[in-house]
Amino acid sequence: MDQLSERQFAERRKRLLAQITDGAIIVPAGHLSARNHDVDFKFRQQSAFWYLTGFGEPDAVAVLRPGHSEPYTLFVLPRDPKLETWTGLRTGVDAAKERFGADAAFSTAELETELPKLIADYEKVYYAVGADQKLDAFLIDLAVKRRRTAPRGDKALTALIDPMPAIDQLRLIKSAVEIECLQKAIDVTVAGFDVAFAKARPGMYEFEVQADMEVEFRRGGSPRNGYPSIVASGENACILHYISNRDRLKDGDLLLIDAGAEYEYYSADITRTWPVNGKFTPEQKDIYELVLAANEAGIDAAKPGNGATDVHDVALRVLTQGLVDLGVLKGEIDTLITERGFLPYYMHGTSHWLGLDVHDSGIYRTGGRTGPSIKLEPGMVLTVEPGLYFGPFAEDAPERFKGIGIRTEDDVLITDDGNRVMTSAAPKTVAEIEAAASGG
Ligand code: GLY
Ligand code: MN
Ligand code: MN
User: Fold this and answer.
1) pLDDT tens across 12-52, in order?
2) Which residue has its alpha carbon closest to ligand 1 atom 4?
3) Nearest CA owner, ligand 1 atom 5
């Protein structure tokens, strides 16, 4: 199923050009990165470049020129049979025009001669300084040259402006096709979790469970993960981004898996935590139910008109109250929140945007760290992922909770009248979790 067609990418470029009207826009693709000797890390296109072009090869550069009758130019790696024999077929200059909708296309070897001509009439250039070392140096050099020749009639290049806030803003509201892709990524991920629930048993290595789960991702049509899977048994769950996945599951352990298959470049992001032997201990269950209550309260707050940060505030209040009720924290709830007394047990945010990137682009507040929250709108997708961690650094934790790490993470689409929990097919209540973990 190939859901994203050139039509959608063209629409995105059109929308960006409607927003940025006073300068040329330059967006670079990613580059290969050496792993060792002549072996590179597997390439995955930069998301902003992909969002605008749908072009998956490295080293390309997209140029958009507002007000121009042929606004879209692509620089791409040229055909090279000798190299392509080793590293794969390239699109090349001609097909970049035919298949990717470019009004003009050049080889990347022509960038130095053609780019200055393309942007000669623009005093402002929208380019994210720092995005590409070669382009950084090239554009600064070009600004110096044009300053020198401006007195004789050239246009000076007076401003390099970051286009990312405008691109991020477009990415924040997902179209119907993007939501379909995200749902597909999520459905595939849930199927992988089902396998992990069914297969994880005491004695297995974390990476074995990971392999079983990821086989299901691949079978479901996902070519890669949106981020490295976190498969964390026992106290490893208290290391938030534990990805070594090399320990053995023990009887009595919880297993926390945080994973997301990617589909058409869109990533799921799901976390479930369950008892490896199929039955929560009373202490594990107390913490599980508290995290679940925070997750549900956070989801209830994820609706149009509420602030994105309200989701965190609501979930945090539930967690803090629960920690007091369980005797982990002492004091007034408001004071514990303002003085951040919860930090030994809850040290991350509850939500982030989700899309092409697992921590997708887009701001959460305007006007600085204490500024007002972005209001939630239909089409936004965010995670709701409270957790509690009684790990090696939580020295004052009651003995009975030590070693427990639990997170429950759902992906939520904001709709006109509330939200849709896109991950609702994954087991979540205590009964559902225990049934799934016992193979039922
Ligand atoms: N998988 C990383 C996160 O949940 O934010
Ligand atoms: Mn997340
Ligand atoms: Mn996650």
Assistant:
1) 999 999 999 999 999 999 999 999 999 999 999 999 999 99
2) 269
3) 359
